[in-house]
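Summary of Year 1 activities. Much of the first year was spent building the evaluation harness for sequence design. The harness presents a backbone, in tokenized form, and records the residue chosen at every position. We chose the following record to illustrate the format because it has been used consistently in internal testing since the harness was completed.
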């Protein structure tokens, strides 16, 4: 127990230092329009570049940040950096895309709306190029707070979407009422979509349900052409997955964004 506590504290101190010393990076994973094969968006994913340990994945440090106040600072940095980078790419004349970022429940009620508003205006970025990904569980935890927040971000033109859809407990009633614009089908479904007929059927129904509610659908974690073919057949809008690209650093993402493979129609 003592060792675990020490590690946690070490991690927290290290993380705080990393944030101050500029060792945090955002990686970007493309979201590809399934019909045209073009990059239409990206998800910003946090990485900690430690001198000794190399690249540390978010699953290792986000929970620790969430247990302390650090997540608010970290979350604020993610919002500012996403807006700065996107605006920079737009000024360089690259294709204009919407970039999403993950919001942690602990960021709710803090200065979230304020930070988004100031990041957009400081970078002269239109709100429609920013998207928030929130999980079902955080939306239902405090439905009133979430609804209020999502109305405010939507008023700025920002898109709201539900992450990891299908793994939480949001009721269909909530889904219909929440001011959201899209949902992401969880990777656990996509993984089995060509193997398990029940999973295939559930995924198909999620896509249909989303469209009934006028939500766009992103399939997360597409790794094979077979999975993409299934998703295309069932009118999924967008795919994100290793089949197209893993999350890459800003420099490599820029190359993807300029690459003819992703800019022109592939079929
Ligand atoms: P998420 O938001 O569901 O992000 C998608 C995760 O799926 C990413 O992992 C991505 O690398 C991975 N992924 C995408 N396509 C594939 C695929 O084809 N196969 C496989 N096996 N995996 C795929 P990552 O970057 O390790 O992030 C993990 C989680 O950490 C994220 O899940 C999100 O919940 C959290 N996270 C990442 N960045 C942030 C952040 O800035 N703030 C907060 N609060 N959470 C973050
Ligand atoms: Mg996400
Ligand atoms: Mg997800």
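For this record, the design step produced the sequence shown next.
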């Amino acid at each position: 127990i003592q060792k675990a506590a020490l590690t946690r504290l070490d991690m927290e101190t290290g993380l705080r230092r990393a944030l101050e010393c500029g060792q945090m990076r955002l990686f970007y994973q493309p979201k590809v329009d399934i019909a045209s094969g073009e990059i239409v968006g990206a998800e910003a994913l946090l990485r900690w570049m430690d001198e000794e340990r190399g690249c540390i994945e978010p699953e290792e440090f986000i929970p620790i940040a969430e247990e302390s106040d650090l997540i608010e600072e970290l979350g604020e940095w993610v919002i500012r950096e996403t807006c700065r980078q996107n605006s920079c790419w737009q000024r360089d004349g690259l294709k204009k895309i919407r970039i999403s970022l993950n919001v942690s429940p602990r960021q709710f009620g803090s200065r979230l709306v304020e930070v988004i508003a100031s990041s957009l205006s400081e970078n002269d970025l239109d709100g429609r190029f920013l998207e928030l990904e929130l999980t079902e569980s955080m939306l239902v935890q405090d439905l009133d707070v979430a609804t209020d927040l999502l109305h405010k971000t939507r008023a700025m033109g920002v898109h709201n979407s539900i992450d990891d859809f299908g793994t939480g407990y949001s009721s269909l009633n909530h889904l219909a009422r929440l001011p959201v614009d899209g949902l992401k089908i969880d990777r656990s479904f996509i993984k089995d979509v060509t193997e398990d007929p029940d999973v295939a059927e559930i995924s198909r129904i999620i896509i249909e349900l989303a469209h009934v509610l006028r939500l766009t659908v992103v399939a997360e974690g597409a790794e094979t052409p077979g999975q993409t073919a299934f998703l295309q057949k069932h009118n999924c809008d967008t795919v994100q997955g290793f089949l197209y690209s893993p999350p890459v650093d800003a420099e490599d993402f820029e190359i993807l964004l300029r690459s003819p493979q992703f800019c022109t129609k592939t079929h």
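The mean pLDDT is 93. Quantitative recovery figures across the full test set are reported in Table 2.
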